[in-house]
Amino acid sequence: FSLQLHLVALNFPFSGDVRADFQCFQQAQLVGLTSTYRAFLSSHLQDLATVVRKTDRYHLPIVNLKGEILFNNWESIFNGNGGQFNIHVPIYSFDGKNVMTDPSWPQKVVWHGSTANGIRLVSNYCEAWHTADMGATGQASPLKTGKLLDQKVYSCSNQFIVLCIENSFVSDPQG
To answer: Mind listing the pLDDT tens digit for each residue in 25-60?
Structure first.
């Protein structure tokens, strides 16, 4: 058993109007995951790069729901290459669907609202994820690019993948 942080998708796509932190928290609880999950999004309060605690950014691998490695560590997502990952490692939703192949997500695009370095893009994060307005825009990344932080702009009316990152590691007292 090694320490790792799970990257998991919400069970269905969302427009730019999403209470993402709440959804991540709730869906993780529903499937019995005990750690806290936060949205993989820049918000008006926080840049995406700082969602994971400083102490956990360098040594914990980022894995999918089945423990397969997506990134060597959190920091490596934000090294400027757009969060390049192996597209042969699936990203699963909390209910176990592969977002890359499952028809629940017709568009294989991930909302993030961030620069390639994980800094919030206030002009492109759907008004801090409070609007699905067709005229508003959000930064997102098509998964086929093999990047989580590819820099594409979409209307907030689109229904895309929303990811959640395990935020705090709760150690087992039995250890």
So the answer is: 999 999 999 899 999 999 998 999 999 999 999 999
Task: Please report the pLDDT score of residue 34 as a whole number.
Answer: 87
Q: Where in the sequence is the domain holding 131, given as residue range(s)?
A: 5-166
pTM: 0.94
What is the DSSP track for 76-119?
Answer: GGGSSS--B--TTS--BBTTS-BTTT-TT-SS-EEE--B-TTS-
Could you tell me the two tokens for 82? 């757009």
> Chain-centre distance of CA 112, in angstroms?
7
First CA to last CA distance, the chain: 10
State how beta strands 152-155 and 137-142 pair: antiparallel
Domain count, the chain: 1
Cα gap 27→112, rounded to integer Å: 19
- Determine phi and psi for 120, rounding to 5 degrees: -65, 140
Q: What does the alpha-carbon distance between residue 146 and residue 71 come to, in Å, rounded to a whole number?
A: 12
Grouping H, G, I as helix, E, B as strand and the rest as coil, residue 79 is coil
Examine residue 96 and state whether it is found in any structural domain, yes or no.
yes
For the stretch 88-127, pLDDT in tens is: 999 999 999 999 999 999 999 999 999 999 999 999 999 9
